[in-house]
Amino acid sequence: MNNPLAPYCLVYVSQATHDFDESELESLLATSRRNNTATGITGLLMYESRLFMQALEGPRGAVEALFQRIKADPRHTDVQIVCEDHIDRRNFGPWRMAFQRASDRDLSGSDGFSALLENYRRGTLSTVDGRLVFAMLVLFKERLPLEGMDGMI
What we know:
Elements: E1 8-16, H1 22-39, E2 42-48, E3 51-58, H2 60-72, E4 76-86, E5 98-101, H3 111-122, H4 130-143
């Protein structure tokens, strides 16, 4: 899709510089949710085994500006875009930033998530079909409870 007025989505993966404990994740999410509300960004963050995978969606300029700040954040390294494009509609609309540890939903053992992480670790992320990754995140979202949408740690 190439409609400049349509919402824009960017999905990336990165390596945390250390293991994030619950309080660090809560602080990260609180800041993200506050900032995302102000800029019109919604999305989903997954964390497992020091790896982050995040989908950001909203106005293209806001998503790109946020991604530049994310890339500069010293709490993680090796930030790589999996896919980015304009989308027909928001897929994570209710969530300023939904979160779940991947293992909590048994996604770390799923073929798609495991393959993505393995390709990332091997440096062959470019061989991954970004559309499939995005579809996996949308399926993950479908499994999250609607109540307490932003309070999932």
